[in-house]
Design a protein that fits this description.
about 280 residues, mainly alpha, Farnesyl Diphosphate Synthase, 2 domains, about 65% helix
C-alpha cells in the first residue's frame, strides 16, 4: 500500500514492514483528517475549533475503550485497533490535536522557543509514534527524532512562506525578524529585499543544523525504516538546497521537489547519512 505524505510524514510505503502498515496508516489518517478540519475549506474559525473539539473527544472516547461515533468511524475504528494492539501513547495523538487547534487562531511566535514548542506538538509526536511502533525508546533516539521532525516542520514553513503569509499564517519568530530590521507581522509575500533574504537564509541554516544533528538516527533504525528515514532527511536537505539556489526568495516563490530529484535522493541515501560522523 502506498499513500501520500502528511506534510513530511513518511507513511505506509513499500519500505514499511507489513505488520506496521495498518497502524501507521491509521495514525496518518488521524492526523490528515484533523489537519483538514483545521485548515481546509471556508469554515469560520469557531466551526473549525468546534469540529476539532469534537474530534478530540472522539480520541478520548476510543482511548477509554468505547466505540467511536459514526461521523469519523473510518478514522477512529482503525485507530482504536492500533491503540489497543500497539499501546500507542495517546498523549502524543492529543498533542497533535492541540497544535491543530492552535493553528486555527494563527498566532504569532515571539521567538524560536515558542515556535519549537509548537513543533513539539505538531511534528515531534509523529516521529515518537513511529519509534514506538519500531520498539525504539532510548533517549538519544527520541532526541534525534525530535530534531528531525522539528527540522522538517521548519523547512516546510520556510518553503511555504509565499503560500502561508497570504493566508494569515506567519511562522517567522518575531525576535528573528527584528534582528534583520523587520517585523514578523508585517512581512509580506512577494518581498525579496536583502533583509528578507538574509532572514530566510538564517532560518534555513538553523533548520539545516537541526536536521544534521538528528540525522544519525537513520543509522540507529534497522532495515527498510532506516532507509526511508534517510530519504526523508535528504528530502528536507534538498529543499534547503533549492531555497539557497533561488537566493532564499521564498517570500516570492515556492520551491518543490520533482521526480528528477528522486535519483539524487536515492543516491545520497545509499552513500551516506548526513551528520553520521557527529
Amino acid at each position: 500500500m502506498s499513500i501520500d505524505h502528511y506534510e513530511n510524514f513518511p507513511v505506509a510505503s513499500w519500505l514499511c514492514p507489513k505488520p506496521l502498515r495498518a497502524p501507521i496508516t491509521a495514525i496518518y489518517w488521524f492526523a490528515r483528517v484533523a489537519d483538514d478540519l483545521a485548515d481546509e475549506g471556508d469554515a469560520p474559525v469557531e466551526r473549525r475549533q468546534a469540529d476539532l473539539a469534537a474530534y478530540r473527544a472522539e480520541l478520548a472516547r476510543v482511548a477509554a475503550g468505547q466505540p467511536p461515533a459514526q461521523r469519523w468511524a473510518h478514522v477512529f475504528v482503525p485507530l482504536s485497533r492500533a491503540i489497543t494492539a500497539h499501546r500507542l501513547p495517546v498523549q502524543l495523538l492529543d498533542d497533535l490535536l492541540d497544535a491543530f487547534i492552535q493553528d486555527t487562531s494563527n498566532p504569532l511566535y515571539p521567538d524560536r522557543a515558542s515556535l519549537l514548542d509548537y513543533c513539539r506538538r505538531s511534528a515531534n509526536p509523529i516521529g515518537r509514534l513511529l519509534l514506538h511502533l519500531y520498539g525504539i525508546w532510548d533517549e538519544v533516539a527520541l532526541v534525534r527524532s525530535d530534531l528531525i521532525c522539528s527540522a522538517l516542520q521548519l523547512i516546510n514553513f520556510w518553503q511555504d512562506l509565499s503560500v502561508d503569509l497570504p493566508r494569515g499564517r506567519c511562522y517567522i519568530p518575531q525576535k528573528e525578524a527584528t534582528r534583520f530590521g523587520l517585523l514578523a507581522d508585517t512581512v509580506r509575500a512577494g518581498a525579496a529585499g536583502p533583509a528578507e533574504r538574509a532572514l530566510v537564509r538564517d532560518l534555513c541554516e538553523w533548520s539545516r543544523q537541526m536536521m544534521l544533528d538528528g540525522a544519525p538516527l537513520a543509522r540507529q533504525i534497522p532495515g527498510r525504516a532506516g532507509w526511508e528515514l534517510r530519504l526523508v532527511v535528504h528530502g528536507g536537505l534538498r529543499i534547503l538546497e533549492k531555497i539557497a539556489d533561488m537566493d532564499f526568495a521564498t517570500l516570492s516563490q515556492r520551491p518543490a521537489l520533482s521526480r528528477w530529484d528522486a535519483p539524487r535522493l536515492l543516491w545520497r541515501a545509499w552513500l551516506h547519512t548526513p551528520g553520521a560522523s557527529r
